[in-house]
Design goal:
Oligomer: single chain
Strand content: 5-15%
Largest sheet: 4 strands, mixed
Strand order of the largest sheet: 1-2-3-4
Keywords: Membrane, Transmembrane, Transmembrane helix
Structural class: alpha/beta
Number of helices: 4
Helix content: 55-70%
C-alpha cells in the first residue's frame, strides 16, 4: 500500500476516466518526435528522451492501473487535425515496437525449445551409453563432456526463460500498455509569478 501511495502522489488520477495521467508539456507537436527523422508524422520515431520518460512512468505506475497520456500545449498552438495525426503516429510507433518484441519472444521460444531438446538428448546419451564401462580415459572424458554439454544446454534454457524472456516480456507489456493508453491534448496552464 505504501508504494501505491507514493506513485499516486506523483501521478494524478483522472476522475472522469479512472486512469492515471502521464503528463507531458510541449511547445509544439514536433517535440514528440525525433527531430532527425524526416518521415511524415504517421511513420516517425518518437523522441528518445520522451520514450525514456514514458517507459519510466509506466514502470512507476503498477501494471494493474490504466494510464492515459496528456500532452499539454500552449493555446495558440493547438490544432485538432495535428492531434489526430499524433495519436495515429503514437499508435503506429507502439504497435511497431510490439511487433519487434513479439518476434524476439518467438525467437527466444524457439531457442529455448532447441536447448531443452538438445540438453535432454545429451543427458540421455550420457546415461544410455556410459563410457565408464569401456575403461578408457578417452571414453570417460567423452561421457563427462556429454553430461556437461547436456547441463550447459539446460542451464542456457533456464537462463533464457527466467532472465532474457522475462525482460523482453516486461517491455512487451509496457508497450502494450502505452499502445492502449488514450492520448489527450490539453491547454498548458501558465502559472504567474
Amino acid at each position: 500500500m505504501n508504494s501505491d501511495r507514493l506513485f499516486s502522489e506523483v501521478y494524478t488520477l483522472d476522475k472522469s476516466t479512472n486512469r492515471y495521467m502521464i503528463e507531458i508539456a510541449l511547445d509544439r507537436y514536433e517535440d514528440i518526435f525525433n527531430e532527425w527523422d524526416p518521415a511524415p508524422f504517421k511513420k516517425r520515431e518518437i523522441d528518445s528522451e520522451l520514450e525514456l520518460y514514458l517507459e519510466g512512468s509506466v514502470e512507476e505506475i503498477p501494471f494493474r492501473f490504466p494510464i492515459e497520456l496528456i500532452f499539454m500545449l500552449p493555446t495558440d498552438r493547438q490544432d485538432t487535425q495535428r492531434e489526430e495525426e499524433v495519436r495515429i503516429a503514437l499508435k503506429n510507433y507502439f504497435g511497431f515496437r510490439l511487433y519487434f518484441l513479439r518476434r524476439e519472444l518467438r525467437k527466444i521460444n524457439i531457442r529455448l525449445l532447441r536447448y531443452v531438446v538438445i540438453g535432454f538428448l545429451l543427458l540421455w546419451v550420457g546415461v544410455t551409453y556410459p563410457g565408464y564401462e569401456l575403461e578408457t580415459d578417452w571414453a570417460r572424458v567423452a561421457t563427462e563432456g556429454i553430461f556437461i554439454g547436456g547441463w550447459v544446454f539446460l542451464w542456457e534454457a533456464v537462463s533464457l526463460f527466467f532472465f532474457s524472456k522475462r525482460e523482453i516480456y516486461h517491455r512487451y507489456q509496457m508497450f502494450k500498455k502505452l499502445l492502449h493508453a488514450p492520448v489527450y491534448f490539453r491547454e498548458a496552464v501558465h502559472q504567474s509569478s
